[in-house]
Predict the structure.
Amino acid sequence: MKSTPRPKPGRAKDVSDAADESLLTQIADGKQDALSKLYDRYQGLMYGMATRITGDSALAQDVVQEAFLGIWRNAARYTSTRASPRTWILSITHHRAVDVLRRRRPTTGIPDSETIQPSALVGPDVWPEVSARLDADTVRSALAVLPDAQRQAIELAYFGGLTQQEIAVRTAAPLGTVKSRVRLGLLQMRRTLNGGELAGPEATMDSDAETRRRGPGGDS
Amino acid sequence: MSDQGFSLSCLAVDELAGLYVLDALEPDEHEAVRRHLATCDQPHRDFAAMGSVVPAMAALFQPLEAPSELKGRVMEAIAMDAPQTRSAAEPALSPSAQAMARAWRSSESRSEPSTGPVAAAPRRRPVLGWAMTAAAVVLIAVLGAWNVLLQGQVGDADRRARLVSQAVAARATSGAEVATLTGSGSATGATGFAAFPAQGSGYVLVVGLPEAPAGRTYQAWYLVDGQPSSAGLMEVAADGTSILAIAPHAGTDAIALTVEPAGGVASPTGEPVVTGELSA
């Protein structure tokens, strides 16, 4: 990936990051006992995420298993990301959960499933955190202050595992509207979580600029 | 803008940034964006800006203790995973180590006639014997796919390697119905499996298949009470591997392959050359 986000000087690696990185290095070397330790550290977070998204205990277990297979196979690639181990691991889990959810939908035909990227089997795209680890209350507040429509679109996507099409149907909004709600909501959350600072040119995007850059025919 | 060859423009990709970082795109769209980002020399800063929020949101999931037996399943899946399916660590491996890994891979695949013992293995060894056979089949199939990949036929081979990975993952899911496939007649020596996970697509994977005669093709069939219905055509790659994603089909108790006229037929005209019965 060539996009190069500015490093966050405030993002100090903590002790658990270092321990997890060491485990990932050992896993990359094929050490199963390192994976066993990583399992003990992350199973609760991963199973919690998978259960919430899939709404099904058996599916959630499959998600966790497949995610660990993805970690096992791709640990060597972790070094090339700039995210924390936790972010990397949870990205794999989220992606896997959403994948499992989509595969089991009756509308998913064979042609689709053939082109599905087995996401746990390749490294996920991850970006460095917005700032040092944030507690749930801070993040919940950042979400809570968004306009209802933006918050709903983000929640349906991230926690519900819905696609943009499904969100459009569920919220009776055109696709273009769903896109811009998600976009504006995420950028606003970033500003909030950064302590209200405007961190870069992308954060200054206002709704006029949004309209300009989308231009004609940007909707689909 | 360097997006020639891709269906998405930089502008279109930026519009999808938010949905992309939330995993809310359809799989084909997600893949198109991923490919664009991997090759585009524009910075696409929106992705980092919005992507940086996502790890924070992960804090909102309530941790939940997984059932204790899950760890055993995970560790077993890891132990059975073929080492070749793990990503070669370009940054971590020295060039000489990579060369050694390649040499090892190719020497492993040269010993591919070890499909012989594999095919002969499952004799009255109910559970363990089957598991070992399936693991060996998977290993060989994955090796085959990797080698084609290494030879640079990336487009089709990449797709096949992905399907193989999916088939392997599907077979490993709990509750999957699996058939061990064995060749006979013109396909003697072929072996493989069909796997139907509890959810999602099923797969048929066969290794050691001879090329179909000119003007003919392999066709896969679901057998329900002995009655066949078509599951699709199976192309054989240069290494003798054939992989097909197939829809679940209610009541299927066996999978069979026949050799049919090119383009396939509505009902089989020849004898099955590869067969296997499903068991949960």
User: Anything to note?
Assistant: The mean pLDDT of chain A is 76. Chain A has ten helices and no strands. The longest helix of chain A spans residues 32-54.
